[in-house]
Amino acid sequence: MFIFYFLFSWSLAGVFGVDSVKSVSVTEGESVSLNLTEIQRDKEITWKFNTIMIAKTYGKDSKSRFYEGSADGRFRDRLKLDQTGSLIITNTRTTDSGEYTVFNRTSETPFNIFSLAVYANLPVTVISRDCSSSSSSSSQQNCLLLCSVVNVSDVTLSWYKGNSLLSSISESNISISLSLPLEVEYQEKNNYSCVINNPIRNQTTHLNITQLCQPCLGLSAALHFST
Question: What are the Ig-like domain coordinates in residue numbering (predicted)?
Fold first, then answer.
């Protein structure tokens, strides 16, 4: 029974390409090359995006065809095939995320599968003074701040004190605005920073307590730089 189960599991992995899926991640606007594990010179191969045919090369003739109208035309003028049969996508977009499969003429089973994730560029975070609670007793000793970003998805927003994580908030599905509060003392000398990150990039905005934590005059100050 054990031998049968082992052989059956191995067979499924071979048929469905479970062990051959390669994950690739890039930032929107970059180019990405989906490199084949085996060079396919002089062979007829087909590339599909989520089951939709997008490119084909015709073996010894080295001719390539791109189906510009397929997949809602999203890949128009952005696809290339190199001499090995690898697919190059230029000026990537978040809508390019998905599964890419490669077939040759002699098999209906893909010999390479790629899972591509294209992440949006990280926006600049804004640290601002929150004066809405300036009448409270604690506001005389403490300064309430907000780190904010707008129209983001698949990101985490975090406050750090030095290298120690203080708090964080995440959004992975829809495009929304995020804000994360932090309360500090007016005279303290600790180093604080707000960090926004996705699975492949991060961006840091450092807090200047002296600049932001001034007495509230009915308006909020804001810091708009990042490093």
Answer: 123-210
Checking if the pLDDT of 123 tops 80, the result is: yes
Q: CA-CA distance, 216 to 93, in Å (whole number)? A: 43
| CB-CB contact of 94 with 27 (8 Å) | no
* Residue 113 and residue 140 share a domain: no
- Across the chain, what does the average pLDDT equal? 81
Q: Say yes or no: 104 and 48 in one domain.
A: yes
Structural domain range at position 89: 19-119
Q: Burial-class residue 110 by CB neighbours within 10 Å (0-12, 13-18, 19+).
A: buried
CA–CA dist 137, 57 (Å, integer): 72
Q: What is the pTM for the complete model shown?
A: 0.76
- Asked whether residue 92 carries a pLDDT value surpassing 70, the answer given is yes
